[in-house]
Each structure stands twice: as C-alpha cells, then as structure tokens.
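Late entry, IPE complex.
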Amino acid sequence: MKRTSDQPANEPKAVEVPRHVAIIMDGNGRWAAQRHLPRKIGHRQGVEAVRVIVRAAGEMGIEYLTLYGFSSENWKRPAEEVSDLMGLLRLFIRRDLAELHQNGVHVRIIGERDHLELDIVALIEEAEALTRDNDRLKLIIAFNYGGQNEIVAAMRRIAGEVKAGRLDPATITQETISAHLDTAGVPDPDLVIRTSGEKRLSNFLIWQSAYSELVFTDVFWPDFTPERLREAVMEFNLRERRFGAVGSAGS
Ligand code: IPE
Ligand code: IPE
Ligand code: MG
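Prediction complete; structure with ligand written out below:
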C-alpha cells in the first residue's frame, strides 16, 4: 500500500495508509471461552496477535501504532487475571524487545506507572531507552492507561505551571492540553479499531480520538490478522473525513 502523496495525479487514487492506527484489543476472554480454555490462554494468544500485527503495521507503512493493553479500569478484574496480564507485558518486553529494536521500532508506553511493580517499570524504561532513536514504526502501548486519568494528570501539570507563574490561563489552548497528555508529540489517531464486537471506547484516547474514524470488527483479538488490518484500512479509505467542514458531495 502506498501513500496518496507518492502517486502521480493521473493515476487511480492509491490506498491511503492512516498515519496513526490505534487498536482496542478486545475479546481475548471470549476467544478462550469459545474453546473451553482458561482466559489466560486467550491473553497469551493475544500477545501472539500483537507480534504479528506490529510487524504487519510496519510493513504497511503505518507510522504510529497504539495498542490498548491494560486499562486503568482493568484492576477490577480478579487478582489472578491482573497478575497474568502484568506477566504478559513482562514476557512481551523480555522476549520481543531485541527484535523490535533490530527492526527499528520505537517503543513508548503510556499510562500511569505509579502503581505498577518496580520490575515492570524498569522493563518499560529499558524498552524506551533502548529504542528511543529508532524511527521506523512508533509502537505505543497503553498500559494502566485511562483517558480520563490522563486528562486529570495533564490538568494537574497545567495548574502547577499556572500556580508557579509560568503559564497565563488566558493562553491555554487545545495544543496546551495535547502537549501535556502522555501522547505529547504524537499525531491524533486517524483510525481507531476495536475488535470483539463491542462498540465503545472504554476510556481509550478520548481526547485524541475526537475526529478519528472508528472501525468495529466482530473478530476476537487473537483472531485479528494482517488481512483484517488491511480490511480496516480499506474501510477507512471509504470514509470521508470532514472535520466539521462541508464534504465533497455537499458543495
Ligand atoms: C482484552 O480481552 C484484553 C484486556 C482487556 C486486557 P478481554 O480480557 O477484555 O476479553 P473479553 O472482553 O472478556 O472477551
Ligand atoms: C478495554 O477492554 C481495555 C483493553 C482492551 C485493554 P475491556 O474489555 O476492559 O472493556 P470493557 O470493560 O468491555 O468496556
Ligand atoms: Mg473485554
């Protein structure tokens, strides 16, 4: 797939690859239940899908891929499942970091680190430090992430700057808020995909997805393949993004 900008004007319109794709990886538990397996196995299979999709996203020319791995609300799950999910982040970083680095992937983890176990925080820091100069695919993992918490933290930082006399409230703009979020410097997602048939954002990138195209697919995350990703990109190409203006058919 090629970017439209690479395409001469007289050739048919090329497929536009969204610059930033964000995915709510849902349905691991139901994938496992369908097979009479424990939820843990579904999560483990979900990590396999992550590996395949990260590779495919890079090959398709996607610049930013954000994956929702653990929400700030997922602590409500049984302790054993929370511990399994923490273990999988550990496993993913330990097993895949070297290969990601070799492939030029830049890894960034967004979300709150305060309540994570220290060895996980150390692994996150290691992954970010090792890959910080890579610029092929930017892989952003949302872990212990919640959009409302992220906005609260941004507000606290902004209020602190106002209190310290470094910021005049009258100069606060949308850009000020964006620059204080965990995703500072990252373009807003063009396409948000959610697997498993649920049609909600579940606190994922709620500020950043204001004008994202949303694609919902019924497949459970462990069954999500590069082909499904390409289908979502094709659906994105059928959408007309208007950003509040008049569309091409309306003039
Ligand atoms: C997504 O799968 C993974 C996480 C939320 C961590 P689920 O665990 O939510 O799977 P379902 O929705 O119960 O099928
Ligand atoms: C959203 O899925 C969180 C992740 C995919 C990490 P959930 O399964 O937690 O969302 P709800 O509870 O169905 O809204
Ligand atoms: Mg779920």
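Residues 49 and 224 are 7 Å apart (CA to CA). Will revisit in the morning.
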